[in-house]
Automatic annotation (TrEMBL):
Chaperone among keywords: no
Domain HTH luxR-type: residue ranges: 150-215
Modified residues (4-aspartylphosphate): D60
PANTHER family tied to this protein: TRANSCRIPTIONAL REGULATORY PROTEIN NARL-RELATED, TWO-COMPONENT RESPONSE REGULATOR
Gene Ontology annotations of biological process type: phosphorelay signal transduction system; regulation of DNA-templated transcription
Protein name per the record: DNA-binding response regulator
SMART domains: HTH_LUXR, REC
Residue ranges of every copy of the Response regulatory domain listed in the record: 9-123
InterPro entries according to UniProt: CheY-like_superfamily (IPR011006), NreC/VraR/RcsB-like_REC (IPR058245), Sig_transdc_resp-reg_C-effctor (IPR016032), Sig_transdc_resp-reg_receiver (IPR001789), Tscrpt_reg_LuxR_C (IPR000792), WalR-like (IPR039420)
PROSITE patterns registered for this protein in UniProt: HTH_LUXR_1, HTH_LUXR_2, RESPONSE_REGULATORY
Gene Ontology terms, MF aspect: DNA binding
Alphabetical keyword list: DNA-binding, Phosphoprotein, Transcription, Transcription regulation
Amino acid sequence: MTPVDEPISVVVVDDQDMVRAGFAALLDAQDDLTVVGQAADGQAALEVCARTAPDVVLMDVRMPVLDGVEATRRLAGGPSRVLMLTTFDIDEYVYTALRAGASGFLLKDATPDELVSAVRVVAAGQSLLAPTVTRRLIEHFTRQPALAATPPTLDALTPREREVLGWVARGESNTEIAARLVLAEQTVKTHVGRIFLKLGIRDRAQAVMVAYETGLVSPGR
């Protein structure tokens, strides 16, 4: 986690020079953000990130040499969190980017304030999906065949942890889950941390993916 007295470091990756420069200028103008590098393709992004170890990588999807999804996959497990930014809200991009390890997905028509806020949210270890992206992600899972009621991949979780994971997948915050289950918020936070550890995931975006993929949660339930 970034210390409170240090700015959030960001690498901006986009193959369009003007777009990349505009994003970098916007983010660098914030007191709590600093742009430590830029790249025009996924391969260059990996090289910049290896040198700078940024807190957040603002990553375009469609780029030459190496696309944003593959670059994200290669960054997974490292110190940087990836916020995908694209003009496309096509299902397969959302799905594959999140499976690759992206912590957020925002469309390029987002306002400057929304973009700055998104970087802060992802840097804080939370996940972020634009509303239209969330809708398409749910639609993707709606089309998938039903899976077993008790997915073997969730066997490590206690009944309470499964319950908490279900509400996380429905987009509820720790505060909302605590109120719903009549638990202390710190208790819910502990449950969420244990869920992440047991499932080998690092944020709520991946938790949502696991919950839907295993059939723990399905749209409308």
